[in-house]
Amino acid sequence: MKAAIKALKEAAIEKLIVAVPAAPPETANELALMVDEFVCLFTPADFMAVGNYYRDFARVTDEEVAEILDESRAPH
């Protein structure tokens, strides 16, 4: 996330908003300082892994990611 924020800031965008479903409180605070707006639904003190906060956190294959990226670049 930090690398993505840095890359987007270098692109001179107008406003940077980051939203995540869950994060450790310390990480949430750190990210909030890096962006214009930060939204986090849940910051449990005993955060262990983001996958613990999803009903379905199945793996995504490299092929699936490539397909999603290709579709996002296609004209609509």
Keyword list:
Rossmann fold; alpha+beta; 76 residues; 3 helices
SSE map:
Blueprint: H1 2-10, E1 17-22, H2 25-34, E2 37-42, H3 62-73
Parallel strand pairs: 1-2
Written account of the structure:
The chain is an alpha+beta fold. It has one domain (2-73): Rossmann fold (3-Layer(aba) Sandwich). The protein has helices at residues 2-10, 25-34, 62-73, and strands at residues 17-22, 37-42. A two-stranded parallel ribbon has the order 1-2. Strand 1, helix 2 and strand 2 form a beta-alpha-beta unit. It is flat. The model has no long low-confidence stretch (mean pLDDT 92).
Beta-strand fraction estimate: 15-25%
Structural class: alpha+beta
- Shape descriptor reads flat
> What name does the CATH topology carry?
Rossmann fold
In short:
The protein has 76 residues and is of the alpha+beta class. It has helices at 2-10, 25-34, 62-73, and strands at residues 17-22, 37-42. The chain is built from three helices and two strands.
